[in-house]
Amino acid sequence: MKKLAIAVAVPLALIGAATFYTSTQVESTARNAVDQANGKLRDMSVGAGADVAVKMLSFDGGFLSSDVRYQIDIQVPDDEGNTRQYSVLLQDHLEHGPFPLSRLVRGRLMPVAAQSHAQLERSPLTEKLFEAASGEVPLVSDVAIGYDGSQQGELRSAAFNLQDEEGTVRVAPAFITFDVAKDASAVRMDGELPEVDINLQGQEGGKPVRMSLRNIGLSADNRENANGFALGPSAVTLKRMEIQAGDDPAMIIQNASFNGAMTEGERGLDVSAGYRVGQVDVQDQSFRNLAFVISLRHLDGASLKALIDSYTQILDSSAAPQDAFAEMSAAQQQDLQARAVQLLEHKPTLALDEFGFETANGAARLSVIVDLQGPSEDAFAPDAMIASMLASLKAEAGVDKGLVRDMASLLAQREQLDAPVDPAALQQQAAVTSEMFSGMALGTGWFQLQGDRLASSLHYTDNKVTLNGREMSVQEFIGFAFGSVQGSGLLGQ
Predict the structure, then answer these.
(1) pLDDT, tens digit, for every residue of 130-154?
(2) Alpha-carbon torsion 340, 344, 345, 348, what sign?
(3) What predicted TM-score, i.e. pTM, was given to this entire model?
(4) Taking the C-alpha atoms of 116, 122, 124 and 127 in order, what is their torsion angle to the nearest 10 degrees?
(5) Domain-by-domain residue ranges, the chain?
(6) 445 torsion bin: left (phi>0), alpha (psi -120 to 50), beta (else)
(7) Which of the 8 DSSP states describes residue 121?
(8) For residue range 370-425, what is the model confidence (pLDDT) as tens digits?
């Protein structure tokens, strides 16, 4: 019996000692978290036009738990040059580790320093949010804080129903789960907002507008490299959006997304960002596979960091970004230019990887890849300096004549919104417009006809230009470009 008592007492004593030690460390851990958050917020707010800061208002510590109040201050400049400040209050109930009761009852047995249960506090600024949430707390979070400073948890919002004389807004409950490593050196998050419905009444005789959004998603998986850049992918997705004005046909957007990523390879950093839309339906016309994807490749990390640091120092020198650049000294300007030239000397690549869309009868695509280099030392004029930065260029474009007809038909319908539509006349007008466009494109020499597709290929390297297989010097190409544009009538007389 005595041995059994000892076997039970020893673990309990160890847990009690760990709990006591944790209770003495919770306040310093919370204050360190505030300092780290403010550091990250300062970095994020540079050039954004708004400042956000967090401060701890009170800390009421106990043996098993503590209660903390925070204030988030947001400063935003208005149109008159003044600064408006908004303050949001948070309540946080911290259960001390290593084994908070709320984790034990859910079967989570890994020891943690504390378990945070935070929620938005009612205040004059947030009063309408509480009313819209029908008595629920609008925003709550549950976060496990590890002994190494890592954080893992979930942020949840209530359902909202807002209504006034301008219309109604209904928002379904949303959530974000996250896993943040020590010092935020790695971040993973996933979130979803299932539904948003907006109904706006027409102002001054205008048409009422109805908008619905379904399944908005957020994801990120980033880690910092040695220079502090966040490597990895991030994405925002939208399953469906529908917009309707009055009794007009609704515009429907499906499977839209924004994807960004930064990777690091042998030649440096590669950064890409792209918008994609699966399908857009408008005025009985469907557009599919819309894409706009750009990238910056082969960036030297150290040079990029030096350029960003120089840019940040200029922004920090004044309260407003426009004032900072207007008051930039000659030394600051020279330093910024030197950092930019240093980045160019590593020969980065700027690319429009994909731009285009499809209709029922055709597709259009454009890609442009530009290889850059450091400017020539003997180039003093701005235009000569810019030209010397261009090492090579490759552009490919293609447009199906069927797509041109579809676009011409859509434009004709828009011109005749308030008039009866004659399908035969509309089809004939679209065919005429398509032939005129094709004739102009071929007549200028910028495009060639490949079957039923207008195609163009432009390459530049070593001061030579190749357009659709025709080689020219730079001077000859400039003369051709101006001549073709003027010949088409785009420059008038």
Answers:
(1) 999 988 999 999 999 988 888 999 9
(2) positive
(3) 0.84
(4) 120
(5) 1-149, 159-265
(6) left
(7) P
(8) 999 988 776 656 667 777 888 999 999 999 998 888 888 877 776 665 555 667 77
